[in-house]
Known about the structure:
By secondary structure, the chain is an alpha+beta fold. It has helices at about 5-10, 15-30, 90-95, 115-130, 135-140; strands at about 45-55, 60-70, 75, 100-105, 105-115, 150-155, 170. About 25% of the residues are buried.
Amino acid sequence: MSTDEKHRSGWLPPRWFIRTAWWFHRRLYAAGGARFLRRPRSGRAGMLRLTTVGRRTGQERSVIVSYVPDGSSYVTLAMNGWADPPPAWWLNLLAHPDAVVETVDGRQRVRAREATGTDRERLWEVLAASDDGWGELDDFAARRSHPTPVVVLELSDQSEPLAQEGPGEGREVG
Length: 174
């Protein structure tokens, strides 16, 4: 890669830094719960806690991810800090698409699906428009050997708010 290409593509911090940031996010959530989650605003993605069922263990697994709203759905990218392998939470959702999200407004049941076709293209643009490190989305995605799944978390038919759970419940994964 030439020097010009390096300057045109988005900068990513070293992998150790990304993993440390994930660890820090999990500790903040364990200490203070939902107050460390955030609502999306114009030009800024929100943060939610996603709880899936482990595809191998059957145990609950939780992770904090950035999202943008799309109607009553939450949209995020199945990325692993832009590393090539898919994140464990996405593999869990492929095996068990029913999950729970927690936002500053509470917990709700969702069902995950991968956006495809024109829906994916539209949502990709919505994500790229949020200036949360996704502004150079195409540059980051080009570093991966496969397309980055756009994940839609749709409120399930059983979408009544769930009882709040205490901080630190459920095993956190990054």
